[in-house]
Write a structure and sequence with these properties.
The protein is an alpha+beta fold. The chain contains 23 helices and 38 strands. Strands 1, 2, 3, 4, 5, 6, 7 and 12 form an 8-stranded antiparallel β-sheet that branches. The chain has a 6-stranded antiparallel β-sheet with strand order 10-9-8-14-13-11.
Length: 855
């Protein structure tokens, strides 16, 4: 019984678009397949079952699945089948032991096609690793960029970090089904495909339909033999098994040859589906075979689905801005034409307003038989020749083309000054238009190789041979204008509605009908205003939920949250640097002020006795001091050059502590109109967390705050000289700290991605991200490394071997740790800087400056 295929079957090139890629009759090598009928009789299996479970196809075919798998596996599979919603749904099970006599766990995918249930089994290769835990931080990361391109770059980085592929690209489809690589992350020595276009023939239409149904596709090894499905056809239907949703589905020989021509050994694609349409792909390439675990693929697929929602949200935001622009244009047009003045009389002003929201090189108004023009436009005679075409194409709707010459009927020539036009009909009763014109923009398209395929002879049969070259191939395009964007079309449609339903009615309707026209206008305006108010309410609701306590910009909110996190970090530095011992209140105050008050004279006066706070009181106290300090810098005494702060700490008779915060020399203060999160921290942290009291007073001299902390949180009072704020003030980091290649050893994916951005911001040319010691040692062996940034603790091991190898090679390195200066690594390498988590980019830059000898 034949089970493996080394040579692909012959292909009729005329059948390329109709190739049944959903019915290859084979599966890839990294798992096996069992198909069962509604009564759970095994009807088809892949030929490699014996490799995985010791049962050959002839042992399984015709058997009841209940008699093959153990009871627990059957129970789990039946339970999960209840969750199958339709034939486009796939359910997953992880780490299932399917045979009692086989000490091996499998991941299982199951779905239904017709009357057949398909079960796919892959050996579980993950050691208790939850890849899905990475998805939410990855999504948070790609949500931050403002533009689609920046979000796609961030997504490519995240997928590469999660999957380990050599190259990850985001590939976007154009209207003509060609595609373009708009984001790319790859090895520094690899040839870049960024910006290259791929013809529609590279991904046939049936493949694009498949991408819509099955949003993740992997090819683990293009040279590995595949296993055939036995029998070839379903006994009940007489058709090959439909593997559209199969994760093991074998790949078209044409596609395998295509990958081979690119030098790719393994690939994976994740569909980006927006509003039911295929927007693009996250395409992954690897230069050697790569079997990615089912759990990792599932997490990547989930990320792709959520990333599509983020892109859709950004598109909705753009649409919202378009509506705002259209509303502003509507209001402006209304102001111009409210008196009943015609478009022809005010065309110059109207053209100026329209061109501000829809860029163009010229504009023609053809209303009431009157020709008006602004900018680079055809003559009235040339426009007259175009009017029949415009009337047929733009009858009651917007018509746009960026290639006018290619769409005009025979015998009609495009004016020399026009390559593209956007026609807006402005009347229902006559052939009146406003036409926006764009001139030719000669452009060069960079294709990934000449977009053709060839038919070759092999083994006596004709075969379709994919392109063999992917080097950049340029095509110069003439006679076309810049594309009219979706935003242009949406704005034009809003303008059409305004002009046809409101403006022209006021200029065309007789005086006797003007009252009725005004009523219709008011109804339309009321409806538009109602919709705009709804939009504003939605935006306001989203913002209030996202930043329930804050205000300001996203950047400001990020800085505020980051400042609070760093305040906690500074506080915990004090209690952890010496065996989790009590922390000095005075040092908390001085450290906080040093971080935010800038250089210059000290403006903090410490009075009384220093208090030693127990560790469980430090975080609350530190946050209060942080909020008081930042509030003083923004609004209080430290906002004025002559202002200062006095902090008096006094021990109470019951062993507790009283802290008096006094601001002087600043501007007048008053209670805030709104109680924000910062004010809540000041007033509620100590009472809520420590059971103490807080009193806040706004007096003429400045803010006064009295805080009492119970005795159970105070280790004692000490007579020590007050510290200087200046001794805790860090020098500003240089703008560019380093250059060259950096080895980043960090086992937490999110921290690694954030650290990579920081390292690039301070000058790193390339960052090698490694999560394990063996991976880092391989990079050191094969690459030139200029600096090392090493996380000390890596789960059940540490960075010692990597530090020793870098030290042996004379490569400077630093440690990143949550254990502070007392890390054992610091004792072994006393000259290596130690950066404590969490850290900001400024602290990393200072540490690297020391490392590179610039500090």
């Amino acid at each position: 019984m034949s089970s493996l295929s080394e040579t692909p079957p012959a292909i009729d090139p005329s059948e390329c678009e109709r190739e049944p890629i959903h019915q290859p009759g084979r599966v890839q090598f990294f798992g096996f397949l069992i198909a069962v009928s509604p009564d759970w009789t095994i009807t088809q299996v892949s030929a490699n079952t014996g490799t995985y479970i010791g049962l050959e196809p002839e042992d399984l075919l015709g058997s009841d699945l209940n008699s093959v798998l153990n009871r627990e596996a059957i129970h789990n599979i039946r339970t999960r089948m209840q969750m199958l919603q339709d034939e486009d749904t796939v359910e997953r099970l992880f780490r299932i032991r399917i045979l009692d006599n086989l000490n091996r766990e499998f991941d299982i995918a199951l779905h239904v096609t017709g009357q057949t249930t398909i079960l796919e089994f892959e050996p579980n290769s993950d050691v208790q690793q939850d890849y899905t835990a990475y998805v939410q931080p990855m999504i948070n990361r790609v949500s931050k960029p403002e533009t689609v391109k920046e979000a796609c770059v961030s997504a490519a980085k995240a997928v590469r970090a999660l999957t380990g592929f050599d190259r990850v690209m985001v590939y976007r489809f154009h209207d003509d089904d060609s595609g373009e690589v708009i984001a790319e992350v790859c090895n520094p020595d690899a040839e870049s495909y960024l910006g290259l276009r791929y013809p529609a023939s590279d991904i046939p239409s049936q493949a694009r339909r498949m991408y819509l149904r099955s949003t993740l596709r992997i090819v683990s090894d293009i040279q590995a033999p595949t296993a055939e499905i036995l029998p070839e056809k379903d006994p009940s239907t007489g058709e090959p098994l439909d593997l559209s949703l199969s994760s093991l589905r074998a790949v078209s020989p044409v596609h395998l040859e295509y990958l081979a021509n690119m030098g790719v050994q393994a690939s994976m694609s994740v569909s980006i589906v927006m509003r039911g349409k295929l927007w693009g792909l996250i395409a992954c390439h690897h230069n050697s075979p790569r079997v990615l675990s089912f759990q990792a693929r599932s997490a990547t697929q989930m990320f792709g689905q959520l990333f599509a929602l983020i892109l859709e949200k950004k598109d909705n935001e753009i649409s919202s801005l378009d509506r705002e622009r259209a509303q502003a244009l509507h209001d402006g047009l209304m102001a111009r034409l409210a008196t009943g003045s015609s478009i022809a009389r005010q065309f110059q002003d109207l053209a100026d307003m329209i061109s501000q929201v829809i860029p163009c090189d010229g504009m023609i108004g053809w209303t009431e038989g009157v020709y008006n023009a602004v900018g680079e436009v055809p003559s009235q005679e040339e426009l007259t020749d175009l009017l029949p075409f415009l009337s047929s194409m733009a009858s009651g709707r917007i018509y746009a083309t960026h290639d006018l010459a290619s769409v005009l009927p025979e015998g009609v020539s495009a004016p020399a000054s026009v390559a593209g036009l956007l026609a807006i009909p402005v009347s229902r009763s006559s052939r009146d238009f406003i036409v926006l014109m764009r001139r030719e923009i000669g452009k060069t398209i960079e294709w990934a190789g000449a977009p053709d395929k060839a038919v070759t002879k092999r083994d006596g049969a004709e075969r379709l041979s994919p392109r063999t070259s992917f080097a950049a191939w340029q095509e110069v395009v003439r006679g076309q204008s810049a594309l009219w964007t979706d935003s242009d079309i949406r704005t034009a449609e809003s303008l059409r509605v305004t002009l046809t339903e409101v403006i022209l009615k006021m200029s065309e309707t007789a005086l006797a009908e003007r009252t009725a026209a005004n009523e219709r206008q008011e109804i339309l305006i009321a409806e538009l205003n109602h919709r705009v108010r709804n939009i504003f309410n939605v935006i306001r609701g989203i913002w209030s939920q996202s930043s329930a306590s804050g205000g300001g910009t996203v950047t400001g909110l990020t800085e505020t949250v980051g400042g609070r996190i760093q305040a906690l970090a500074r506080a915990y530095d004090q209690v952890t640097e010496v065996d989790w011992r009590p922390a000095s209140l005075w040092r908390l105050c001085a450290t906080e002020l040093a971080a935010y008050s800038g250089s210059g004279r000290d403006r903090l006066e410490l009075r009384g006795q220093d208090a030693l706070l127990l560790p469980n009181a430090v975080s609350a106290t530190s946050l209060v001091m942080h909020e008081l300090t930042t509030n003083s810098i923004k609004y209080g005494s430290l906002s004025a050059p002559s202002g200062w702060i006095t902090v008096t700490s006094t021990g109470n008779t019951d062993g507790g502590l009283t802290i008096e915060w006094r601001e002087q020399g600043g501007p007048p203060v008053s209670p805030p109109e709104r109680i924000g999160f910062g004010t809540t921290i000041i007033e509620q942290s100590v009472p809520h967390e420590l059971g103490g009291t807080t009193a806040v007073r706004f007096v003429a001299d400045g803010l006064e705050v009295d805080i009492t902390i119970p005795a159970r949180f105070v280790a004692g009072m000490v007579n020590t000289p007050p510290p200087s704020v200046g001794q805790f003030r860090e020098a500003p980091p240089p703008k560019q700290t380093i250059s060259g290649s950096v080895l980043l050893l960090e086992d937490n994916l999110i921290i690694a991605l954030a650290s990579e951005d920081m390292l690039r911001n301070v000058g790193a040319d390339h960052v090698w991200i490694c999560s394990t010691v063996p991976q880092a040692l391989r990079v050191i062996e094969t690459s030139d490394i200029d600096f090392g940034v090493l996380d000390v603790n890596l789960g059940d091991t540490n960075a010692g071997d990597v530090a020793r190898e870098l030290s042996r090679r004379g490569v400077p390195f630093m440690f990143v740790t949550g254990y502070g200066e007392r890390s054992p690594m610091k004792q072994a390498y006393p000259n290596a800087p130690v950066l404590q988590k969490p850290f900001a980019e400024e602290r990393l830059a200072l540490a690297l400056a020391t490392l590179s000898g610039q500090g």
